[in-house]
Design goal:
about 750 residues, Immunoglobulin-like, 5 domains, 6-stranded mixed β-sheet, about 20% helix, globular
């Protein structure tokens, strides 16, 4: 009996075939995307506006924001949001009797959110008698550890009238990428027909091409800059790199493995309306955490047996899925190793994620939830003539027309087709998503995802600080920066030695049979520590209730820089951030800061208020601030200054005392854009002197040591509290100290900031 046929008799657990498909950190469903009940969305608007939206010109109704009030009612939420916008959404569905709606929460009130969401997408899914095909695809994507819209079932009321059962689908925007990729900031492109990713020219502006009044590659973030350079470079590498260098080149700019997972799901589900089929319906996100483009699908309703184009998708060859030129698919399939990965993911989906037992476990309880609401949905039959009986039979039976299969029919038919078409699966070892860890402070943190290779796979990080590469064993135990134990993500923290300035590192994965994979093709270079700089973060405020207001009368967070040197410093090309992984969050405005001068910036997440307003805030419960510079010669980020702090005092600032010194204290009276030297201090201690010794490593997770003769002194925390005294020692260890910033004062007058990190 064939493998696919066998899988339908006995559910094959992947642990018997290899390691689990790696999971990323996915957001919880939260209160808006409940999985075990149907919430009610109540829309209230002017009746004339409602008539215009439902029965008027669809172009107007899909682009015009109608004012409304929206309520969300469930067992965990009962909320009314005033002053929102409602419009129609979709393409062909605009002309259907049962409309889909987009609720825009911040159209009239900038920044307004509901449960951290700015928009709600209420999808009618009027072409699907089950209403659940798209939701099933999203569920499988999530179980595969891939980014995809969260969703839930809702019923919609409009001015007291029941509009029917809907699928509430998470909108893809800045909040989406921040939820799924830890931090936002990268370019996020919505790609619609005819988005082939074919090469046009080296000119970035040429990729702003328009069809039917909208861009084929529409930039949804960083729209003010409107810079397509990264997309042009990616498409250039994809199309123009010679075959012999393609594998290494594409892995430097694109998450190949996750794309192949999505492609495998497209093939199993018969999704003909994505990239490879209709060159349509996907996003590309340039992830600032990894430097890679991520492929994210959307609009997954034309799946699992729905066919509008007579494509015979149930029997189509998975290795010739694209009937026209699709560089991203075509070139990857030309690489034998990638074809093996793709085959691996196809077998995995067929045998587990799209196994009838797994699919039924997802669909059947949702069918039960939907049943009474579909039965009373007067709009349900209006588009195609669906009856309630068609809903009840949608899992097992074809309806006819564009619904050529019931979902279970499709699963069986597609599995048996693939069983005859797929390559025999040999051993594969897939290492991908090496996270960029530069710059390095107390330790080099390396994390990589490894699929396949069986239970005996070994993963090693090779680190070279100038004396030859040394091996450090990586772990998948949840205790080495590797996310969760056994999830396929491997990690290691390599302690930094005092004399290291840069390190080269590379990950090696080896299976029990000797199959080997290196990630990346060439070692990564990371900069160690903070570079000496006369430009420093001098003062900050993260709990500004009544102290300093901006031009808009707002009491926001702020940061002050100081030039502690003897020469003017150019501010252009330097950046502030609250996340070391995203150095370029805020580019300092062009200008020069003279010796002994200050530069002042609001960190209020209000960049629309002017160039001196940064797109992030500081947390009053503890945060970090870093100052970076981009080195064009070495093509590396240089960390000029870094400071981590804990709980803030309200209306007190935290700053260096005196200006530019290494000693940080709390100021009772903030000294924004002026000297700290005469501030009222909430701390203890004499006026500190400049360093007379050398201390390291700093930051440190264990101990620090200083040169010269043994010394006596004291240790203070960031609030000025005495934590420890010591006598005639050459160093100090963190015993009993939590992570944070401390001050060492030695009897010879030397004082240092010591950052203790986990």
């Amino acid at each position: 009996m064939s493998r696919a046929a066998l899988s339908f008799l006995t559910l094959v657990l992947w642990g018997a075939m290899g390691s689990s498909m790696a999971q990323t950190d996915l957001p919880d469903f939260g209160p808006v995307f409940l999985q075990d009940e149907i919430a009610t969305v109540v829309i209230t608007m002017d009746p004339a506006d409602a008539d215009a939206m439902l029965f008027g010109d669809v172009d107007y109704a899909s682009s015009n924001p109608f004012p409304a009030t929206v309520g969300y009612q469930s067992s965990v939420l009962d909320t009314i949001i005033d002053t929102v916008a409602v419009r129609l959404r979709g393409n062909t569905s605009l002309f259907a009797p049962k409309k889909s709606f987009k609720v825009d929460l911040n159209a009239f009130i900038p920044g307004q959110k509901f449960a951290d969401l700015e928009k709600l997408n209420l999808n009618a899914n009027q072409n699907d008698p089950s209403l659940l095909r798209a939701a099933l695809s999203w569920d499988i994507l999530r179980r595969m550890g891939l980014a995809g819209s969260r969703n839930s079932l809702v019923k919609v009321m409009l001015n007291g009238a029941y509009m029917g059962a809907y699928v509430n689908t998470e909108h893809m925007d800045e909040e989406f990428v921040e939820e799924y990729y830890d931090k936002d900031g990268g370019n996020f492109y919505k790609c619609l027909w005819p988005a082939t990713l074919e090469y046009i020219s080296p000119n970035a502006d040429d990729y702003k091409l328009e069809v039917n009044g909208r861009r084929v590659y529409e930039l949804k973030t960083n729209t003010g800059e409107d810079d397509y350079t990264d997309l042009a470079e990616f498409i250039g590498i994809l199309n123009n790199t010679p075959d012999e260098g393609f594998k290494c080149a594409i892995e430097e700019v694109f998450n190949v493995a996750d794309f192949l997972k999505v492609m495998a799901l497209d093939v199993v589900s018969g999704n003909w309306d994505g990239y490879t089929g209709n060159k349509n319906n996907f996003y590309l996100y340039h992830n600032p955490q990894t430097g890679l483009f991520e492929y994210i699908p959307y609009d997954l309703d034309n799946t699992w047996g729905i066919d509008w184009v007579d494509g015979d998708w149930v029997s189509r060859d998975p290795y010739e899925w694209a009937s026209e030129t699709r560089p991203l698919y075509d070139r990857l399939m030309e690489v034998p190793e990638y074809r093996d990965w793709y085959t691996h993911y196809l077998w995995r989906i067929v045998s587990e994620y799209a196994h009838p037992d797994s699919v039924n476990a997802y669909l059947e309880p949702r069918m039960a939830l939907l049943s009474p609401h579909v039965a009373s949905d007067t709009y349900y039959p209006l588009t195609f003539g669906f009856e309630f009986e068609d809903f009840e039979a949608s899992l097992t039976d074809a309806w006819g027309g564009h619904v050529e299969f019931g979902i279970q029919q499709w699963l069986v038919s597609r599995a048996f087709s693939l069983n005859d078409q797929l390559d025999d699966e040999g051993e594969v070892l897939i290492a991908h998503e090496l996270e960029d860890n530069a710059p390095v402070l107390d330790s080099l943190r390396v994390r990589a995802i490894v699929d396949g290779g069986g239970d005996a796979v070994e993963v090693t990080c090779w680190v070279d600080a100038g004396g030859g590469a040394q091996p450090f064993v990586m772990y998948d135990d949840g205790e080495h920066g590797d996310r969760q134990a056994g999830d396929g993500t491997w990690g290691i923290k390599v302690p930094i030695q005092w004399n290291w300035t840069t390190v080269d590192y590379q990950v090696q994965a080896v299976s029990a049979s000797g199959l080997e994979r290196w990630l990346p093709c060439d070692p990564v270079t990371a900069t160690v520590g903070v570079s000496p700089s006369d430009l420093v973060v001098n003062e900050l405020m993260s709990s500004n209730a009544n102290n300093v207001s901006d031009a808009f009368g707002e009491f926001d967070d702020w940061v002050e820089l100081f030039n502690a040197g003897n020469y003017p410093i150019e501010l252009g090309g330097k950046y502030l951030t609250d996340n070391l992984s995203i150095p370029d969050k805020y580019a300092l405005p062009e200008g020069t800061i003279g010796p002994g001068e200050w530069a002042f910036y609001w960190v209020d997440n209000d960049p629309e208020q002017g160039e001196y307003h940064a797109p992030f805030t500081l947390s009053s419960t503890g945060d970090e601030i870093a100052l970076f510079e981009w080195n064009d010669t070495e093509e590396v980020w240089v960390l000029l200054d870094f400071f981590a702090f804990g709980q803030s005092e309200q209306d007190a600032s935290l700053g260096r005392y005196p200006d530019g010194a290494d000693y940080w204290v709390w100021f009772a009276t903030p000294t924004a854009a002026s000297t700290n030297n005469y501030a009222i201090i909430l701390d203890v201690g004499d006026t500190p002197k400049r360093e007379a010794r050398v201390m390291g490593p700093n930051p440190s997770s264990t101990c620090v040591a200083w040169d010269g003769m043994p010394a006596s002194g004291a240790l203070w925390d960031a609030q000025g509290q005495l934590r420890r005294t010591f006598s005639q020692v050459n160093g100090l260890c963190r015993d009993g100290l939590s992570s944070g910033v401390y001050m060492l004062t030695l009897d010879d007058g030397s004082r240092w900031r010591w950052i203790v990190v986990d």
